[in-house]
Specification:
alpha+beta, Rossmann fold, Elongation Factor Tu (Ef-tu), domain 3, 8-stranded antiparallel β-sheet
Length: 423
């Protein structure tokens, strides 16, 4: 794989933050934005004025992200807030999710596209149930990199043994999880230790600062560049004199590298053709890879519509109407029902489906399987078998997070009621 062309996707890092309610998540994000000079002077002046008015001795950086709190208090529900910032090295998108226990579903929403999960632990409290719960969700969602920020080190006198104790306890727990890359950083979001600048207070710590880690963590291999998957979103027919015979298939690459001249197959028809051209917003491309959005043109005139998938002849996804799925249930009004009927969305396909069987409910704190408890309520995670009305083109979630995920929609209300990972 040539390194030059994948640089665009490597320049954007998505990360999610998780921690209990008062672990200092807002302060941490505020500190990252402030110390990386990603906020405007007027924003800074505003929070300085509020902090002074409240009689706080330091500028309360948590206020940078706390606009959400006011909105929540007014009864406006914000499940996940996205924040954008950049440094000369990389662009970042933070999915900030509330820390309360009942918000498993928000973490699932915010983390499903993340490269990195930041897990905050209060150095005074150590590893608590919430920590384990968030780590389990990060592992279920196959987030490639996990950073454990042991925060509020200033409140434990920057003690190395406190850090080591939490480090060892979490590491022992993490062996049960499917997490490949875990790092630990001692920080004080309030004082700025090891967030952007190295701290003199933790001379015993030799690892990177949080910002250095985020700017340099290797994420180019987080995408699947092997299995070619292109779900067709839209057929482009301009019907103009200038583009008289133009027929392009637009969508976002879900896997693999497509090159001009490649032989491809269209599902479900099974017809084959060759790629004659790859168009993009920036002009014609010789090759395309995830997560680019492009338009593919084929040599032959094949009947293709939204929901079809363009793949390689000798590397096809599984085509099936029966799916084994780990589902996180979102709906707080109605539980998931055995034999319940829903709309299922998978890449650009939509079908109706039936919940054939609930295998077990997962205890999110211990990873135990509850095989006799079939009441799946909001924020529960369960393993279920789903039958769809038409075949879907699927991969396992651990092989491809895009073609391996589904959402369920309530036919009556049109609400998204569940998100699932195909096993």
């Amino acid at each position: 794989m040539k390194s030059t062309n994948h640089s665009k996707s490597i320049n954007l890092l998505r990360f999610t933050t998780a921690g209990s309610v008062d672990d200092g998540k807002s302060t941490l994000i505020g500190r990252l934005l402030y110390d990386s000079k990603s906020i405007y002077q007027d924003q800074y002046d505003q929070i300085e004025a509020i902090s002074t008015k409240r009689g706080e001795e330091n500028i309360n950086l948590a206020l940078l992200t706390d606009g959400l709190k006011a909105e929540r208090e007014q009864g406006i529900t914000i499940d996940v807030a996205y924040r954008y910032f950049s440094t000369p090295k990389r662009k970042f998108i933070i999915a900030d999710t509330p820390g309360h226990i009942q918000y498993t579903r928000n973490m699932v929403t915010g983390a499903s596209t993340a490269n990195v999960a930041l897990l905050l632990i209060d150095a005074r409290n150590g590893v608590i149930e919430q920590t384990k719960r968030h780590a389990i969700i990060a592992s279920l969602l196959q987030i490639p990199h996990l950073v454990v920020c042991i925060n509020k080190m200033d409140l434990v006198d920057y003690a190395e043994d406190t850090f080591n104790k939490i480090h060892d306890e979490f590491e022992a727990f993490a062996t049960k999880l499917d997490v490949k890359d875990v790092s630990f950083i001692p920080v004080s979001a309030l004082k700025g230790d090891n967030i952007v600048d190295r701290s003199k207070n933790t001379s015993w710590y030799e690892g990177p600062t949080l910002m250095y880690y985020l700017e340099n963590v290797h994420i180019s291999s987080d995408h699947n560049f092997i299995d070619c998957r292109f779900p067709v979103q839209y057929v482009i027919r301009p019907y103009s004199d200038q583009y008289h015979d133009y027929r392009g298939y637009a969508g976002r690459l879900a896997g693999g590298v497509f090159k001009k001249g490649d032989e491809v197959m269209v599902l479900p028809s099974g017809f084959t053709s060759k790629i004659s051209k790859i168009d993009s917003f920036d002009g014609e491309l010789q090759e395309a890879f995830p997560p680019q959005s492009v338009t593919l043109l084929l040599e032959d005139n094949i009947d293709i519509s939204r929901g079809d998938m363009i793949v390689r002849v000798n590397n096809k996804p599984e085509v099936s109407q029966d799916l084994e799925v780990m589902i996180c249930w979102f709906d707080h009004t109605k539980p998931l029902k055995q034999r319940g009927k829903y709309i299922i969305r998978h890449t650009t396909q939509e079908a109706r489906c039936l919940i054939k069987e609930i295998r077990y409910k997962l205890d999110i704190n211990t990873l135990h399987r509850k095989q006799e408890d079939f009441e799946i309520k909001s924020n529960d995670i369960a393993r279920v078998v789903i039958r769809s009305t038409k075949p879907l083109f699927i991969d396992k979630y651990r092989e491809n997070r895009i073609t391996g995920s589904i959402i369920l929609i309530d036919e009556g209300t049109n609400n998204t009621v569940g998100a699932g990972m195909i096993i």
